[in-house]
Please model this.
Amino acid sequence: MSATTAPTGTTRGIPARQLLRGAILIAILLLALLPLLNHLPADSAFRVSDFTVAVTGKWICYAVLALAIDLAWGYAGILSLGHGAFFALGGYAMGMHLMRLIGPRGVYGHPVLPDFMVFLGYRELPWYWLGFDHFPYAILMAMLVPGLLAFVVGYLSFRSRITGVYFSIITQAMTYALMLAFFRNDMGFGGNNGFTDFKELLGVPLNTQAARAGLFYAALALLAGSLVLCRHLVGTKLGRVLVAVRDAESRVRFLGYSVTAFKLTVFVLSAVLAGLAGALYVPLVGIINPGEFAPGNSIEAVIWVAVGGRGTLIGALLGAFSVNALKTWLTSVAPDLWLFVLGGLFVAVTVFLPRGLIGLFRRATK
Model:
């Protein structure tokens, strides 16, 4: 190799992996600047609007969801079409806490009933609402409930060796069943209206710049922490076994590994991450309703991962941000076209870019 020739997988002598890491660091720093730019005077050319901060915070939560899906699908071959359910359950856990902060105060200063329960004529708080007046309990439930559901569904499926499209159908049916259940008024979750009109979180009014900035940085910290955790896991023995399970499950089973345990571990962890993303999403957008369980939401999240490049983690983040940015722009100029564009995008990526945008980047840097 001559001195002027760049090594394979490099650009001008800089490894593609280092380029990606540098790009991620720059992107995180730029994101961290948005709430600060939001505080600039209204006539400043560098001021970022409240809408931009809010919508970017929402994309960050979506990126965590995409990361969770990529961990299960990209590395273990578990194609779940129900991760929107885990995301929504985490959102409902946080929504229950926020609703407990609204309404007439009881003897000890805690609200007696959420306002929608007063309107519907509830006499007392349902037992499954107990404890949600405490923030740590709500965060615990945002992890525990999705994780427990994933454990039950995963254990029954993986133990029975249900894989591929059959498992995808099961997870799709799961989220659809939950959507129908949460639409019922007698479930005690607000029916088709869900939860909204939140007032405060941790004593801070939610309609302030400080609250928006705090939630934005919390979401960004969750994204960075989730990325570090997932990157660490896929680099360990667990990650190597998961890839082996993805590529040759029967051979891994023949070697004596408990495939069920490995798949169950990553599926539950993926659900917990999705639940945490949902918990931060709700105070950022100010509403949660059964529509979040819609099967189409889970399918769209899978498309984010496919567009970015599954099995790369970074690709999941790239896909979540790029597709949602396109959706935000297109639904404002031509809302009727979005579903056609989304379907066409998935077909185009599958046919022409099977490794997604990250695969395109890697080819360009060789």
